[in-house]
Amino acid sequence: MKLIKKLILWISNLKVAIGLLVIIAIASGLGTAIPQGEPKPTYLDVYNEHPFLGFINGTILLHLQIDHIYSSVWFLFLLTWLGLALIICSWRRQWPSLKAAMKWIDYKEPHQLSKLALAETVSIDEKEASLSQLASFLEEKGWKVKKKPNRIAARKGVIGRAGPLLVHIGLIFLMIGATWGSLGGQKIERFLAPGRSIDLMSLEGEKQLTLTLKNFKIDRDAAGRTEQFRSKIELSKPNQIQKDIQEISVNHPLRFEGLTVYQADWSLAAITLQIGESPKLQLPLKSFPELGEQIWGLVLPTRPDGTEPVLLTVTNEQGPVEVIDDTGDIIANLIPGGSSTNIKGVPIKVTNLLPASGLLLKRDPGVPLVYIGFTITLIGGVLSIISTRQLWAVADTKKSLLHVGGLCNRNLTGLAQELPIILTTISNK
Question: Which residues touch 6 (CB under 8 Å, ≥6 apart)?
Fold first, then answer.
């Protein structure tokens, strides 16, 4: 039993809890600095060549689970430890402190008040009248007053003593919610072209929801810089006639029955070409990161046998489309919707470019608990600001004196300044 008691005391030790918070903060910083959830070969390629902090290569990074910190075994262990420390601290300290604060302390003798942080003695004419005047004044100012023969006890702001306990409870809810979300949450990233759909399936393999991109728009300023992405999304359930259509944009996600859809990114999905007198051809585009950031294109042969190819590249949905020959020279610029241009003897016309919306779908079962925890923590933080003030007045039965003493858990100076004002309500002898 002694060993268990020592273990409990060590787990809930304030210095240990502070150390845990520091480690969790450092780990969270790593999770921000290092991309999370990427394919394992990505970490090996990037960090083997350029180790993080000069010594953490891709192999070490994967071994330490830094590629998925927030769902790693050691990070969840730290959260569990911190949560257990908060529970024990709340049980051993905050709850007894709150119960003690709710009890009325009854000082019966004048000498007991002299040991308090604030103590004053005033002359009075009539003790019952003076105590009654003092009690009435305190009640008008919002104090709770308990009257007894020859003495009164008063207190104000006792609700503030519940603040620290609520903060602990809120933090526990936050950690449970975050852990539940890390273990039970789902995340899907997809690029969708207008008219394309995603079917979301249940664990049993049944279709639960179909998400269809109806329209995608990129808002740009006069200089052509991107300002906002907007996606119009249709949601439909199996055997449901009515369909819900909503628009999302960056920082304005869609929330639907526990599913959150974020506007995350964009790309170019396809290019529509007309080669000579051919019908319009919609051809898929792919990214060319080796040519630069956000460059899409395709290799297009100019001869029936597939020879003399040219590379078509584009950086945004407005064009132009650059045509590059096998020597790396730009030989033409094609404007979407413009006239055809002769490329190596072949007239080529770009009808349009089809952008794709980058959507991030997240289902996080821990979100309600996180919101509840944040609310409780916020309420507890506000209540913690409220100072708890206590005041006692004991009449000397042998002398015409009234002894007054007070305590305050914070802002004792404020109570010291208020005490003379309170005492002016008592008639001097």
Answer: none
Q: Is the pTM of this model over 0.70?
A: no
pLDDT value of position 79? 86
**pLDDT for 427:** 55
pLDDT value for 429:
42
Beta carbons within 10 angstroms of residue 185's beta carbon: 16
pLDDT lower than 70: segments of the chain: 1, 202-205, 427-429
